Amino acid sequence: MSTQSELEMEKKLVEQLERMGYERLEKCNEADLVKNLKTQLELHNRIQLTSDEFEQIKDKLKKGDVFDKSRMLRGMIDVMGADGTPKYIELFSVKHWCQNRFQVARQVTNRSAADHSRYDVTILMNGLPLVQIELKARGNDIRSAFDQIDRYRSKSYENNSGLFGFIQLFIISNGVNTRYFSNNQKLNFQFTFEWSDESNQRINRLDQFAESFMERCHLSKMIARYIVLHETSRNLMVLRPYQYYAVERILERVGYGRGDGYIWHTTGSGKTLTSFKASQILSHDPKVDKVLFVVDRRDLDYQTALEFNAFSANSVDTTENTKKLVEQLNDNACTLIVTTIQKLNAAISKPQFKEQCKDVAGKKVVFIFDECHRSQFGDTHHRICDFFGHRQMFGFTGTPIFDANTVKTKYGNKTTRDLFGEALHRYVITDAIRDRTVLCFSVEYRDRATPDDVVEMNDGSRLPANALSEEQMNHKSFINAPERVDKIVSDILALHPSKTFEREYTAMMCVGSVDLLRVYYESFRRLQADLAEDDKLKVATIFSSGPDDSDEFTGLEDTSVPSVTGRNVDAGRMEFLKACVGDYNRLYSTSYDATDNKSFYEYYQDLSRRVKRKEVDILLVVNMFLTGFDSPPLNTLYVDKRLRHHGLIQAFSRTNRIYDAKKSHGNIVCYRRLKDATDEALSIFANRDAKAGGVDEVISTVIMQPYPDLVDTFRSEVAQLKQIAATPDAVDELFKEEEQLKFLAKFRDVLRMQNTLKTFSEFHNDLEDNTLDIDEQTLLDYQSKYLDKREELEAAQRERRKKKPDTGGPGEGGNADESDDDQFNFDFDFEIELIKRDEVNVGYIINLIEKLKKGESDQKAYELTRDMILNVLQADPELRHKKQLFQDFIDIKLPTLKPSTEDQVEGFVKHQFNAFVVEKRSEAIADACKALNADLDGFRALYEEYIYRGRLPDIKELLGVLSVRPKITARKAVAENMREMMESLATVYESSEV
Question: What is the pLDDT of residues 88-118, one digit of tens each?
């Protein structure tokens, strides 16, 4: 039985869509689509358009980028009739999405002077191409379909009428794997999503995906309702399936007009986008008078409003105080309000405000609570229910309260279900890790106590540490002992480089009390006192100066910014807080006052920003920042605190936000015995049925394998690599492309395992001790061969594409199986990030050359250093193209340099290298012009414009600088060759000067 070809898959999909009610357009070109657009707009709007009116529409449709066109799509455009009367044309019905007109086309051609593209399957609504589908034959990598769309996106969609700039969604499939994603100026494979049913079961097969996702009304609704235009970034954001189902269930409840509910979506899965969509839609519902989005910390009052306004400009006016909230509650035009639980409580309980709010008490009000388990287990919930007689309440939480972790209140033991009713949708941490919405955790339990340690107890007795009971191990006299803390800090200082990839990422440390925090803070300062400033970890802290926090964190504690004035302030702790803020002021040249509430809150906000910008290495806290704080560059949590239930999951989840390819998991380093608590928390929150037990079924998903198991996997990957190429040099003997591709794929697997293992300090020791069946130098040698082979295959692919005949004429589809690219694909973004070392840049290499110059009297050391520099260049994916430039400078220029003194070497070498780069760039441009027979000034002007604008010249501009125009049949290939020359020049010479 033969396998299904891409052409057959394409035909079957179109036939299926026809059966689902789509009208089929026969093979057509872009000009045919324009004619079709006029017909479809007339039918949709029930009008007749004159030629002049349609020309006006075409002119307007050409304007703007994809974001501008997406806004235009959702509004009305006006044209002026011959009689001077304006006509308003609807491009797409947002409100009545099923009433749009649906068509499907195969192999639409879009030809221009510089490019000729043919698109597999296009879905049109009212004549506009809004969904583009790219298919690859079964057995091929779905990533190649994404890469093809990315090329179309950058090269051809804006050609001619620019109609393809209206595309809202892309769908890619190889038959068995199917994904969707939104259109943007820059596409990222990380933001391609699988569709699933309401139980989070994936729908991957193309025919099943089409039946579910591409049903006409559903697909139109996804565009109309579930694509969010993010105003700040000017990006389109399409909801993932679990976000879609959550919003739908809320809307369904409100539509019925009765019943509350809560959404259980794990921490870090995009709650703000989901809650915004639900709030936005409800605020436009004529049956709903007010939508109140309620948070329980005043920092989120401001932050959430900013995020909401980023999704839809000026959609939310943040409430500055209770008086402002009361005004908004009484303003009929203000349908969406973001406020805090504290201000809402004041508005409905304090006499001076309650009287002013009486008119809204009987109106239809929908409440959406952020992290509902922290804000709704006290008197305020009952006051809201009593005050608003015609209300519905919906809560979002990543860690609900169940019977197993129930909360005791004066109203009895309460669960989330008791307050909000049933869970309307569940998306638990195992779902999120499977979908790579969040990362898994690596948990290490490191007991720093040794049998030789003697601990003095409160009663004066002295006991060996290993003889302490669990109760004694948790006793303050042991926990707060400076000797113990110093051991842990020393351990952290040793671990931190590997855990954070040499401080590419940041960390947080949570401790059991302010008193313990003081011991840690002083220990970090003391143990780093002798280090150079650049080598010291930047440690910042924030804590309450009030009564001490409980050593155990459950996640229900108040983590808001505390008051620094009043009777509850402890004088000793305030003095310590002032000292910490003073250190912060000196470190960052700020001037915050720990004794002033406004200034302290500004300190809190500034600290939050600096952590997110990676300007703080370790944030030392007790309870604050353990919930609700999102910082994707944070990848490590050091724990010296008792954590339980949702508090443990919330704290751990500070580390597992998606950030980049190198961040493969969140690191949890425990200095308390938390394994039982971790297992218990996972049994509750990683189990969608919320039943105790069953942790063995989910722990392998949530918690990474221990280091010894990872090492075994690494050794297995290395063994398989050596079966393909026994040594790095053996890679050169892989002559068949199939063998080369196998090597590239397997070394990528080794890279991924190495990236995970690098976060363990043991890995570096094992590499040095040669216990991993491969040493570091051999890994680097394989890496160099990997980069060489990949570039060779890319170059061969480009050449094949140039030579491929252009068989499809206007209106002709050609052969759909003749893909514009070969079936070889690399996950570029991912692998380059894993190989790239941030510390290796041009400045780093220049520093090495300076050392080389200073030591040139020792010939042996000189040669070793030279070879090391060239090896570093060869193994770096970005600098390897500059290797010959540096080598020529070292071998030709460096020996001739004669600084007057050794102290002048640094600036002298740097200055000479910069001049060398300028000279060599000019020579290279002249050589390129000679080879091309091009005008030097004209070519240089185009090159400089490319460097400045980041846009390669079009075919007309390129051919314009040639002394001899090539034949028509050769012009495209010549222009492509000129573009490649410019890209090559830029790769070598740009960003080379220091």
Answer: 999 999 999 999 999 999 988 887 655 677 8
Same domain, 686 and 713: no
Contact 118, 29 (CB under 8 A): no
Q: Considering the domain boundaries, does residue 465 fall inside one?
A: no
In a domain, 893, yes or no: no
- Average pLDDT of the residues in 548-568: 68
Q: Report d(CA 796, CA 790) in Å as an integer.
A: 10
pLDDT, tens digit (0-9, with 9 covering 90-100), for 887-923: 999 888 888 887 765 555 567 788 888 889 899 999 9
* 388 CB burial (10 A radius; 0-12, 13-18, 19+): buried
- Quick one: 750 and 760 in the same domain? yes
8 Å CB contact between 943 and 982? yes
Residue pLDDT, tens place only, 387-421:
998 999 999 988 888 877 665 554 557 788 888 88
Cα–Cα distance for residue pair 779/785, rounded to 1 Å: 10
- Is 777 found in the same domain as 637? no
Q: From CA 765, how far away is CA 355, in angstroms rounded?
A: 70
What span, in angstroms and rounded, lies between the C-alpha atoms of 283 and 260? 17
Q: Taking the alpha carbons of 414, 420, 423, 426 in that order, is the dihedral positive or negative?
A: negative
Cβ atoms of 72 and 168 within 8 Å: the answer is no
Q: What letter does residue 378 receive in the DSSP assignment?
A: S
Q: Which residues of 645-658 are buried (b: 16+ CB within 10 A; e: fewer)?
A: bbbbbbbbbbbbbe
Q: Count H helices, E strands: the chain?
A: 38, 30
The residue ranges of DSSP E strands in 112-175, in sequence order, are 116-125, 128-135, 169-173
Measured distance CA(131)–CA(171) in Å, rounded: 7
Distances (CA, A) of 864 to 344, 781, 848, 856, 858: 70, 16, 12, 11, 10
Question: Do 116 and 187 fall within a single domain?
Answer: yes
Overall number of domains in the chain: 5
pLDDT score of 818: 42
Closest among 124, 145, 108, 312 to 223, alpha carbons compared: 124
User: Would you state the pLDDT for residue 2?
Assistant: 58
CA distance 131 to 122: 6
Same domain, 20 and 111: yes
> How is residue 809 written in tokens?
């004429």
What would the pLDDT profile of 288-318 be if each residue is shown by its tens digit? 999 998 876 655 556 666 777 777 666 666 6
The pTM of the full predicted model, rounded to 2 decimals, is 0.81
Choosing from 704, 724, 744, the residue where a domain stops is: 704
Q: Give the ranges where 81-160 is alpha helix by DSSP (H).
A: 142-155
Q: Are residues 864 and 987 in the same domain?
A: yes
Distance CA 106, CA 121 (A): 5
CA distance 926 to 939: 9
Are residue 646 and residue 510 in the same domain, yes or no? yes
The amino acid that residue 403 corresponds to is D
Q: Which one is predicted more confidently, 900 or 954?
A: 954
Evaluate if residue 827 carries a pLDDT over 80.
no
Residues 10 and 159 both lie in one domain: yes
Q: Distance between CA 105 and CA 213 in Å, rounded?
A: 18
CB 511 within 8 A of CB 624: no
Q: At what angle do helices 776-803 and 968-989 cross, to 10 degrees?
A: 160
Domain of 275 in residue numbering reads as 241-427
Cα–Cα distance measured from residue 387 to residue 466, given in angstroms and rounded to the nearest whole number: 58
Q: Is position 233 within any domain?
A: no
**687-711 pLDDT tens trace:** 665 444 456 667 778 898 889 999 9
Cβ atoms of residues 276 and 307 within 8 Å: yes
Cα-Cα-Cα-Cα dihedral of 958, 964, 970, 972, to 10°? 10
Tell me if 728 is assigned to some domain: yes
- Checking if the pLDDT of 479 tops 60, the result is yes
